[in-house]
Amino acid sequence: QDVQKESEPHVYLSKEEVKEKIQNYNSSVTDKLKMTLNTNGIYTGFIKVQMELCRPITVQSSQSQGRCAHSNNETAFYLPDGCVNTLHISSTNTVREVIEALLKKFFVADNPAKFALYKRCHKEDQVYTCKLSDREHPLYLRLVAGPRTEMLSFVLREHETGEVMWEAFTVPELQNFLRILDKEENEQLQILKKRYAAYREKLEEALGGVWKPG
């Protein structure tokens, strides 16, 4: 289970340190997703973000797959577990901009304020997660940690239940969510009914065997 960790202080690097780290980073890359340093000091590169969304998202496209509930031109659906997205960003891009880019890539109509970006680190057989502030720069964190995702990975999640900005949801979104929950509740109810019907049938068979005349 993830252990929450406080944000670490930001350490600024000189231009020479950035150049050296990018060279070391690129020499360690195994997936060809290298970083590029521009003459103005800004560098670009790639980050991978794992989508760990528990609630359905609302999209404006009919091309989505999975359990859906429709409302006008929008669709609410659950994103498949373990979905990972790769983004090409620059060192100036903030966490908030990364979240907005991810949602745009998936044609998500939900308010970006509903989501948060976390960094996940492995240390001493423990997994630590830390919610990043909107002003942090993910590519800088990737550069400092190196290309290995075991050292650092990014995760997109909804805000914790107590932090959800319900006012950011529209009425159609909430209605879609309720339709999906009703559908899931009915599916689970049917599963339970079938399970208990099977138990009842076995019990009746057992009773019939016990009371069967010798």
From TrEMBL:
Domain of life: Eukaryota
Stored SMART domains: RA
Main location: cytoplasm
InterPro entries named among the record's database cross-references: RA_dom, RASSF1-6, SARAH_dom, Ubiquitin-like_domsf
Domain called Ras-associating: residue spans: 71-161
GO cellular component: cytoplasm; microtubule
UniProt keyword list: Cytoplasm, Cytoskeleton, Metal-binding, Microtubule, Phosphoprotein, Zinc, Zinc-finger
Gene Ontology MF annotations: zinc ion binding
Coiled-coil ranges per UniProt: none
Residues making up the signal peptide according to the UniProt record: none
Residue ranges constituting the SARAH domain according to the UniProt record: 163-210
GO biological process, one term: signal transduction
Compartments in which it is found: Cytoplasm, Cytoskeleton
Name by which UniProt lists this protein: RASF3 protein
Originating organism: Galbula dea
Organism lineage string: Eukaryota, Metazoa, Chordata, Craniata, Vertebrata
